[in-house]
Amino acid sequence: MSMKQIETLVFDYGGVIVNIDDVSVVKAMESLGVTAFKRLIHVRKIKRLMHQYINGLVAEAETLKEMLSLCRKGTTTGDIEKVLEELCGNLPVERLEALVKLRKRYKVYLLSNINDTLWQKSVSQMNQLGYSTEEMFDEVFLSYAMRKEKPSVEIYEEMTQKTGLNPATTLYFDDRAENAEAGRNFGFQSVLVKTNHLEEHQEWQEIIKNIKE
Length: 213
Known about the structure:
Blueprint: E1 8-11, H1 22-31, H2 36-41, H3 43-55, H4 60-68, H5 77-84, H6 93-102, E2 107-112, H7 116-128, H8 133-136, E3 139-142, H9 143-146, H10 153-163, E4 170-174, H11 177-186, E5 189-192, H12 202-212
Helix pairs in contact: 3-4
C-alpha cells in the first residue's frame, strides 16, 4: 500500500515521540540502593513494578510501596518519585513541530501506556517547549485513563470505535515489538520503531515528504 492512501497516524509516546534514556533509569535505581545484585535477583519483580507503574492500571501508592522494599533503608516514596521522573525523557522539539504539520493532512492520535503522573509531567514538558497536546493530536489514548494497556486488543478496539479510523489506512508507530505486532494483527500498517530513532524510518520520512508537497 502506498503512503498516499494513509489517512491516519497513531504514535506511541515513550521511545517514539520522546527519547527515553535507560541508562539514567539504571543510575537512578542505583542511587536508591537498588544494586546490580538486587536487580539481578529481582529482575522479574522490577520489570513488573516498572510496567505496573508506567501503565498506571494499579494504584501508584501501592506500586511505590512495593518498590520501597527493594530500596535501601531510609528511602521514601518521595525519593522514588523523583527518580521516576527520569522516565519522562527528553522531547525533541522537531518532532513536536512535525506533528503539528502532519495534522494538516492526517488524523493524528497518541496511544500510550503511561500513568497519570508521568503524563502530566510530559504535558508540562510540551507546554514549556511551546506546544499543546491539542495542537499535535486529534485525540490522546492513555492506558491509565482507559484502564486498558497495549498490546491487548481491547485498547486498539476502543480507539477505533471512538475515532472511526480505518485500520487499513492507518500507519502505527511503536517501539515495542509486541505492540507493533498487536497493531499489525489488528489490521494497521505497523512500523516497529528503533527506540529514540523515529527519523531513521522510511515511513516517517515519506509522511513528512507528503506534507511538504
